[in-house]
Amino acid sequence: MRRGFTLSETMVAMLVAGIVLTAIMSTFISAQVMMANTMAESEMALAARSVREKLLFHVSPTIDGVHYSGMLSGTNSGWVVESGSGYVLMGMSALGTSLSDVRPQSMRLILGQSGSDRYLFNERTPNKDSHAGWLWPGRIPLVESSMLDIVSYDSKGSGTSTNPADVYRVNLDLSFKVNGPRNRPVVRGERVVVPLMGRLQPMKDSAGRY
After folding, report:
1. CA 192 → CA 38, 111, 119, 140, distances in Å?
2. Residues 78, 136, 117, 143, CA torsion sign
3. What pLDDT, in 10s, does the model give residues 126-152?
4. How far apart, in whole angstroms, are the C-alpha atoms of residue 160 and residue 182?
5. Three-state secondary structure along 103-122?
6. pTM of the predicted structure, to 2 decimals
7. In Å, how far from its chain's centre is CA 174?
8. For residue 111, what are the β-bridge partners?
9. Of all helices (H) and strands (E), which one includes residue 45?
């Protein structure tokens, strides 16, 4: 009876084991990368949804019992996007203790920065430094380095007294970024489109269609 393996048998066994282990490790690493990317995408999706909801309905948190409205409550009749800066400047209204109690508010949406991380920030928020993270959920930073890279708008009509019909829509293109496996960035883009209801909207288009 043999007490061991020959050199050839040992080499064949090691070769087979190497092939099997290589396949297992490759599958494990691929699954780990996929799971990490999936988690990153999920976190960014949640952050993007949170930012979108806050921009539309509560651009500042509730402070001292005062609720702050969002961009959908904008009442501007003139320009909204500041020329040359891309900052969004809006007057808004919020209801107080009754439907007739309308309270004016305002916002100026800019790009805040903490170290190398950038995020949206409403500088009209009371005690703003204490609430700088309101539009920065999960501390997931933005890719863009300027509001001009984020904000654009669509308009139609001159908005004059002779041509009051005017469409004004603010577009915010946000790209969230996290470091994925091997420090490779994972980026998710999100567009938030806000029609400014406080402006006069046309009842029909240029072709006369409603």
Report:
1. 23, 16, 15, 17
2. negative
3. 888 889 899 999 899 999 999 999 999
4. 56
5. EEEEEEEEEEEECCEEEEEE
6. 0.74
7. 5
8. 120
9. helix 7-57
